[in-house]
Amino acid sequence: xxxxxxxxxxxSNNYKSILLLIAFPLLLFGLVxxxxxxxxxxxxDQDKVFVLESVNxxxxxxxxxxxxxxxxWFLIAWFSHSSIIRKAxxxxxxxxxxxxxxxxxxxxxxxxxxxxxPKICIIEDDSLNAFASGLTDKTFTVTFSRGIINKLEDxxxxxxxxxxxxxxxxxDVRLLIISIIFVGIFAFISEIAFRSIRYRxxxxxxxEGGVIFIILLLGIIGLVLSYFFRFALSRKREYLADAxxxxxxxxxxxxxxxxxxxxxxxxxxxxxxEDVAQMFIDxxxxxxxxxxxxxxxxxxxxxxxxxxxxQILEQF
Length: 316
What we know:
Elements: H1 6-43, H2 48-89, E1 92-93, H3 100-113, E2 119-123, E3 130-133, E4 141-145, H4 146-151, H5 154-169, H6 172-200, H7 206-249, H8 252-264, H9 274-277, H10 295-299, H11 306-314
Parallel strand pairs: 2-4
Antiparallel strand pairs: 1-2, 3-4
């Protein structure tokens, strides 16, 4: 494998993440425009020039309403984020007296980077995994499974902590929430259109049914593409967090060794939601359910192949 310098890795992943983040609103407004264009062609027998003029006018008038709707959706998801994470993982605060070792490792790394120490939580599970969450200094949290605390050596656990702190420093949780929200919007649109066709299609006129079908088709296209953007963004941020951990600890082999151990048993039984699962350092699935990555798997995977992450770490 060709060597990739640490700073080159960070710069490349940041650039690609920005492009992917821009792609979400462009996709949303692009599909809104396509909806008006398709429905105008379907509902009316007009020449193309007039259709374009009409579509552009309606689209411009609709943009503020779409923006307001998306903003409201964002605010609801933004303020409910922490409670959703706690319920989805059954995590609880880790008391300092219960494990001074973890607190010392976290605090030492935070001091080295001049950052505020995040909250520390634990999931009572013997598997090995961890994740960072939170949107502000008051809510930033690093959560560990009981297994990862007990089974990793100090340098390995320090590398995992550095990985999660890098997510916090880079505000990765905010990026992931934005991507999850856009996926949720397209999923909601597709679900409403599908239910309309399934349960009330017989009571609608032919043209009205055609409009609903257009909504469903565009919703599915948006959903598939937003999933693609979301997972690509998630994979890029994992590579970036690995690189950040190396920069923080100066010990790439410690993280490589930690990932090897984590890959043997990353399954967290409490985690059922895919949008929460993608936040972990490795996808929390059963080892016996894992398989070699096909082309489709690579496109829609929340995490890059852990073997590839280890290979990159071993070349530093």
